[in-house]
Amino acid sequence: MSYSHQVEPTPRFATTDQIQVVKRQSEGHCRTPSYIRGKIGIVERYCGNFKNPEQLAVAHPTPVIIPLYRCRFLQTEIWPNYLGAETDTLEIEIYEHWVDPV
Amino acid sequence: MEQDLKMGPHDVGGEFSDPIDTLDSGMTHWEKFSNGIRGAVSARKVITLDELRLSAESFGDEYFKMPYFERNGLALVHRCLERELFTEEELQLARTKAEKEFEVPLIDLPNPKSITHLHDGEEHHHHDNDFQEDEAGEGPPSYYFDMLAVAKLLVDRELITMQNVLQKIEQFDNVFPARGIAVVAKAWTDPKFRKFLIRDAKNAIIDMGLKLESFAEIICMPQSEQTHHMVVCTLCSCYPRSLLGMPPSWYKSRSYRSRVVHEPRKVLAEFGTIIPDDVEVRVHDSNADMRYLILPQRPKGTEDWTEAKLANIISRDHLVGVRVPEDVI
């Protein structure tokens, strides 16, 4: 659910910032696929603030609102044996509690 | 691949899998009904989409054994029970009633040998086995009765109306699929609109006069000589439904969800789309709150075409990025 109009919390990251997706296990419902955890990329854009889906999944009465980013990765960073072109990329949305600075 | 971080059966991005069946098998009436209830329940905010996702993810090994609509239909049933919107007993009762109402009395068919009519001017006699297939026509799957029961129980509790469900079915069939195509045809003929669409897709589409039911934000990615975009949802089946309708069967398949992220060019080749190595392939894993509309390049040879004529050559597959419209010269 979009809370883009809500300015709080202020996003920690901006476009072109280098980031690493947090590499840890998750409990219950989570929108960060395992293949992207631990990978290093850049922020493509800040998308606005959204309710935490991990809490929405259990009908939490007051889910926290967190910044969401689109992040870009080189395919060769994600898959060591990637067979396509070296310039090929992947973009995916990552909520701020899954993003670490590099 | 870090197996230990896998969240569950649904977390398939990066797996190796079978070739993709690129034909869309469409939807049966049961599937449309099941999908319509889910749409109504989400729209009326009875249950969130994330609750329904978690419910499906909890099926474990059964997850990929069930067809898509059965899995999602039963996920709704389970979540309603967990949320105590009705009891197991009430569900069983409503289900039995739905099954009874569905029973059609058998009627005696005429003796086929007695039917004589003309085919291409020639007299034609039927044989006993001519009617066997029709008589053995398949009935609805078991989960359809659960869905009928859920609909009845939620309507009784005034959480949804049957009109909500029927409206969703109607929109998915007849309204949503045409929208994305209209947006692209306009972007091809109106440079100002194209700029607006790429900068702020949701507002550009609303500005066109389209009312978007979905909560999601929309991002438009223009295909270019430098970059080829394509969309997948590795965790479930996120898709710009209010612009394109229901995702085709291949989009929801395990093969597509597993493979696009790590071998996009091989997947594209299975759709007959070859992207040269000097063009970057950019995969969008649509996993959260954004939905993606790919804007294809306008084919050569269509320079004097009207918006309406252009709409005829735009297909859903172009707007997901698995195919590109062909030049018409």
Write structural notes for this entry.
The complex is a heterodimer of chains A (102) and B (329). By secondary structure, chain A is mainly beta. Chain A has helices at 53-56, 75-78, and strands spanning 18-21, 40-51, 65-74, 89-95, 99-101. Chain A is built from two helices and five strands, in the order E-E-H-E-H-E-E. In chain A, strands 4-3-2-1-5 form a five-stranded antiparallel beta sheet. The mean pLDDT of chain A is 94. With 329 residues, chain B is mainly alpha-helical. Helices cover 44% and strands 10% of the residues of chain B. Chain B has helices at residues 29-43, 49-57, 68-82, 88-102, 132-135, 142-156, 162-189, 191-199, 201-207, 241-244, 254-259, 264-270, 307-311, 316-320, and strands at 116-119, 122-125, 217-222, 227-232, 280-285, 290-295. In chain B, the strands form three sheets. In chain B, strands 1-2 form a two-stranded antiparallel ribbon. In chain B, strands 3-6 form a two-stranded parallel ribbon. In chain B, a hairpin with a 2-residue loop joins strand 1 (116-119) and strand 2. In chain B, helix 1 packs parallel to helix 6 (142-156), helix 1 (29-43) packs across helix 7 and helix 2 (49-57) packs across helix 3. Mean pLDDT of chain B is 91; it is low at 131-136. The chains are: A mainly beta (102), B mainly alpha (329). The A-B interface holds A 1-2, 4, 23-26, 28-38, 47-48, 50, 53-54, 56-59, 68, 70, 75, 78-79, 82-85, 87-95 and B 1-2, 4-7, 11, 13-14, 47-51, 53-54, 57, 83, 215-217, 219, 234-235, 261-266, 277-290.
Number of domains of chain A: 1
Task: Give the CATH level 1 class of the largest domain in chain B.
Answer: Alpha Beta
Provide the β-strand percentage band of chain B: 5-15%
Oligomeric state of the chains present here: heterodimer
Globally, the shape of chain A reads: globular
Q: Which value, in Å, is the CA radius of gyration of chain A?
A: 14 Å
Instruction: Provide the CATH topology of chain A.
Output: SH3 type barrels
Could you tell me the number of beta strands of chain B?
A: 6
Which structural class do you get from the secondary structure elements of chain B?
A: mainly alpha
How many helices of chain A? The count is: 2
What strand line-up does the widest sheet of chain B have?
1-2
Spatially, the strands of the biggest sheet of chain A line up as 4-3-2-1-5
Q: Please name the fourth-level CATH homologous superfamily of the largest domain in chain B.
A: Nitrile hydratase alpha /Thiocyanate hydrolase gamma
Proportion in helices of chain B: 40-55%
Count of individual beta strands of chain A: 5
Sheet/helix structural class of chain A: mainly beta
Give average pLDDT of chain B, whole number.
91
CATH class group of chain A: Mainly Beta
